[in-house]
Design goal:
alpha+beta, 54% helix, disordered N terminus
Length: 429
């Protein structure tokens, strides 16, 4: 145990003394100290890993939307950003089932609106059980029915071959564009262009000719879901018997047209196509990228709440450990405290020393949690498709929470030490 200096101590001396004592305590009681800071380590570890993963996913989601352009919006038969599909069965029928589906031919009507550059029907069948097969080879696929101008919306590019033309889309040609993973799994080293594959569910499959190899724009969801296959929307609607409630429209205004004006014009035309009278409630929805991002923020907000809850439990456990180890430290150093007070040691100096000691212990736990979290984040980036980016605020928040935990839970032991009677303390055995 280091010798303590009597009398008043400056702030710097108090801090350095507290840090030195903390390291002495860790060296003398390694197991006890490690168990004490374990809770803080776990709490900081959770903050680091979850914040990195959530930040990475948010960035990937923004990248997913950004190639579509800030003026692109969607028209659907219900607003899936606000509709609750998980309520009790006895509640009112959800809009997803109550509202009539959209007519794919309406896309042409929307495309004729002044100020609208293009409007196309679109269907995402990636959640359905579709597969592609060639001879004995078969793979589960994420199937999408899109328009001839899909490349302008998605931001990916063609690696070989071409995208389907408007003429092919109009005559419902059975042509398809596949990603490189599908090409490799189905054809191996053979050139897939102009070869035929069968697409469908189970025994119900249709023959399509491969005309292009597509590379998806890099993002989280492209990494999680492989084997993307695109066919003209009209072909998907006819050959694969798409459920009409899965149909939506992608609308792109002219570059010089303001987004809100385009939305207002589309809204007015949709009401006409739906034969809605003045005062009747809309039975369709127009959604912008801002709404999509708001919905995503709500989902990640739940994860952030879980992160705060889990890390708080870890910090609470660590704080309780700090109280225990600091009370033991006060007991073991009772005579030393009494000697310092007898020699003129001030109450605030003793209290500060114990608070710094407690904060140092929890800061070490936080630093350990950061190192472990950083290692996990590195592994996630290297071994999984999940993007993980450690935000600066998470580092600052983790270290600040560690220090505040030590100070908050060290207050009672510190005040207990500072309040000891010097005479009684000197008599302590």
């Amino acid at each position: 145990m280091r010798a303590r200096r009597g009398g008043g101590m400056g702030f710097y001396a108090t801090v350095t003394e507290g840090i030195a004592v903390a390291f002495d305590s860790i060296g003398a009681n390694k197991v006890r100290s490690c168990l004490t800071i374990l809770g803080v380590t776990i709490g900081v570890f959770v903050v680091m890993v979850m914040a990195a993963v959530i930040t990475g996913i948010n960035g990937s989601f923004s990248e997913l939307l950004s190639p579509r352009g800030i003026t692109t919006f969607w028209v659907a038969h219900f607003d899936f950003t606000s509709t609750n599909l998980s309520g009790p069965l006895d509640e009112e029928e959800p809009d997803f089932l109550k509202n009539n589906p959209l007519d794919p031919q309406w896309a042409e009507e929307l495309g004729r609106i002044p100020g609208i550059q293009s409007a196309a029907a679109f269907v995402d069948l990636s959640q359905e059980s579709y597969e592609a097969r060639v001879e004995s080879e078969r793979v589960e696929i994420s199937l999408l029915g899109a328009g001839a101008d899909y490349l302008e919306i998605d931001g990916g590019d063609i690696m070989a071959g071409r995208w389907f033309t408007q003429a092919e889309a109009d005559r419902r040609a059975q042509v398809t564009v596949i990603d490189s993973a599908t090409a490799v799994d189905l054809f191996g080293n053979r050139d897939p262009l102009d070869r035929e594959i069968r697409i469908g569910r189970g025994n119900e499959a249709a023959v399509f000719r491969v005309i292009g190899i597509y590379r998806v724009a890099p993002n989280l969801f492209a990494g999680l879901a492989t084997h993307w296959v695109w066919v003209p929307f009209a072909t998907a609607d006819k050959v694969l018997r798409v459920w009409d409630r899965m149909i939506s429209f992608v609308v792109r205004p002219e570059p010089e047209t303001e987004l809100q004006l385009a939305i207002d014009a589309t809204h007015a035309r949709m009401r006409q196509l739906r034969n809605l009278k003045p005062g009747e409630e809309d039975d369709f929805a127009i959604m912008t990228e801002d709404q999509m991002l708001e919905l995503w923020d709500q989902l990640t907000g739940v994860l952030f709440a879980a992160m705060v809850g889990l890390s708080s439990i870890g910090l609470m456990v660590g704080g309780v450990g700090v109280v225990g180890i600091m009370m033991i430290s006060v007991t073991e150093r009772t005579r030393e405290i009494g000697l310092r007070k007898a020699m003129g040691g001030r109450r605030r100096d003793i209290m500060w020393q114990f608070l710094v000691e407690a904060a140092t212990l929890t800061l070490l736990g936080g630093a350990t949690g950061m190192l472990l979290g950083g290692a996990i984040v590195w592994a996630v980036n290297g071994l999984t498709p999940l993007p993980a980016v450690v935000p600066l605020w998470s580092i600052v928040a983790a270290l600040a929470a560690s220090v505040l935990t030590g100070i908050g839970f060290g207050l009672y032991p510190a005040s207990r030490a500072a309040g000891l009677d010097p005479i009684e303390a000197l008599r302590y055995e």
